[in-house]
Amino acid sequence: MAIKHQESAFNQLSMGPSRKANVVPLRLYDMRTPPSFAQWAQTVELILAIEPDPTVAMAWFVGEDIAELDGLTGYELVQAGKKSLLDDFLRAILEGHCDE
After folding, report:
1. How crowded is the C-beta side of 62, counted as CA atoms within 13 Å?
2. Higher pLDDT, residue 93 or 36
3. What span, in angstroms and rounded, lies between the C-alpha atoms of 36 and 55?
4. Fewer CB atoms < 10 Å away: N or C end of the chain?
């Protein structure tokens, strides 16, 4: 009796996803000043208070240029060590001081 070779789950994962993602992968290890978990939680809470759908919120975070913040995305701001600017911007939206 011969054993037929089947691709293991590991081999399938190592080949990458079979479909293209619509969101760039977050590379948190690239960030200059990585925020603590508590700091991340604060930013995530602010984003989800504005957009409760996590998929839409994440797509906004990594893909939407913020004109008021030099055209950078939320991810780029955090990556550049400007998380506090992003948080202030999100709070201003929540308080009604600027449009979404």
Report:
1. 13
2. 93
3. 22
4. N
80 touches 32 (CB < 8 A): yes
**Cα dihedral value 86, 91, 96, 100, nearest 10:** 40
Nearest Cα residue to 62 out of 53, 72, 49, 70: 72
Give this prediction's pTM. 0.63
C-alpha pair distances (Å), 93 with each of 9, 42, 72, 90: 44, 15, 17, 5
Query: Residues near 65 by Cβ (< 8 Å), separated by ≥ 6?
Result: 71, 72, 73
Sign of the Cα pseudo-torsion (45, 50, 54, 56, in order): negative
Q: How far apart (Å, rounded) are the C-alpha atoms in residues 27 and 31?
A: 8
Greatest extent of the chain over all pairs of C-alpha atoms, in Å: 73
Q: Are 63 and 23 spatial neighbours (Cβ–Cβ below 8 Å)?
A: yes
Task: Please report, as a single letter, which amino acid is at residue 20.
Answer: K
